[in-house]
Fold this protein.
Amino acid sequence: MNTIEMKHLTKDYGNQRGIFDVTFSVKKGEVMGFLGPNGAGKTTTIRHLLGFSTPNHGTCTINGMDCFHKAKDIHRSLGYLPGEIAFMDDMTGKQFLKFAADLKGMKNKGRMQELMDMFSLDPGGRIKKMSKGMKQKIGIVCAFMDSPDLYILDEPTSGLDPLMQNQFVELILEEKKRGATVLMSSHMFEEVERTCDRTAIIREGRLVAVEDMGTLGKSKQKVFMVTLGSKAEAEAFSREMNGVRQTGENRVTVGVRGELSEFIRCLGKYRVLNLAEQKQTLEDLFLHFYGGDSHE
Amino acid sequence: MNNIFVMPLLKREIKSNYKVFLIIAAVASMYISVMVSMFEPDLGKMLAEFEKAMPGLMSAAGMTNPGTTLQSFLKTYLYGFFMFVLPMIYELFTANKLVAGYVDRGSMASILSAPHSRRKVVRTQGFFLTASVCLMILYITVLGIVCSEMMFPGDLGIAEFLSLNAGLLCLHICISGFFFFMSCICNDTRRSTGIGVGVFLVFYLVQMLSNMGDKLENLKYATIFTLFDGDALLRGESRAIVMSGILLMIGILFFELGKYRFQKRDLPL
């Protein structure tokens, strides 16, 4: 059964901005990634799911209910983390959490305390004075504190340090075990890779693909920058190795798909000074899956 | 109550707006007590001569025909300007904060992502504004009566004074309704405040001009504030009741229109 269902969702803001004919669904109990570069239309899509906006064409429903007209009923069991965190500036973190809990009509605050401990959040100070990371943590606690069935999270880890990002991944996996459905947007592949079953990829307002995470991982190219002992060695290595992208001085950039053993075996014959994996940007990802040098 | 209003939100609004309310009420208290204390039964004659000397200036500020009774004295010196502007400042500030402020800053998302309909949220905000404006006018009325009775026992025609304040309430429901409407349809407070202030000023200036009489008198048809006629209210004329009724209806209409638009429109959250 599908929890979220979007059909031909279109919202045109003019100047090629907006979302166009977006169709995808999220199954019950599934963790779905929503990848796209900044300005691709992730937040616009989420705006429709929350019922803040009405589409020009198409429909979006959650549990069979229209996202705009039945917003109140949908929000009964929804955890939402906005992409741009904006709380009541005049409140302290503690006051705001209490306010949010009251708004949701929450009686039991046990989970709230658990989450605050999990993210080592001290919500005493005024929100206005808080750092981005602190606000993000408060947003996460707000979204998760009443253990809803569905989460819609807009760039949930932005502003968090790596330790807290790991903590967040743990939290998602925990909620997934509990049976919750999650849609989370991101502009980083790695973040989605660790938690999601499938991912939808959006670019310039149009859905490019909905991929299984397993397939994506397999076909994803890892890019390494190798620094070798000398220029001659670098040249020899780049003749021997498939998928070389760039050679300069004693450095070689190589794209490797699938298993790494062949690459390592080949490297073993040379004097390697340094080996570093390059983080792939989303644009890289698009290039490799949908055009460009897809199969060496 | 929980079915009609979002109670946690209502509580928050009381907490975050009472300071401005108190400040405005304190300033109003000062003006009212000072004005009452300045009343002298013989003063009317003196001011009438004063007006003969500078006819334009006094009437521009709505300070026409001060009369000899305490209520008409207060009407002239308080209800022509201060009782327009002081509650207006509160209404402008609060109305814009209540809806456009949250939309502008994005915190409306945390309110609307909770299980409450937009209708209920905006109804709560509208109710808070209306109730606090009623409280403000009630305070002004009671304070006026108390000050008068303390300083000039028996001089104030209470029935007339109450009728004047009922008219004032209708006027302020109308003004706050307009501000609330702007707050509901605008995405940022700069715009909603700007338009609110602009329209208020234009109407008020037109009223000042029309007060100056002569050919400009016809300008009174170009401002909504003509519908608040202090003299007619004091005399208990039926046209005053009709005009106040119209002000009230316009106010309610703006409130309802604002709520309706807020429920239908796209929010940039």
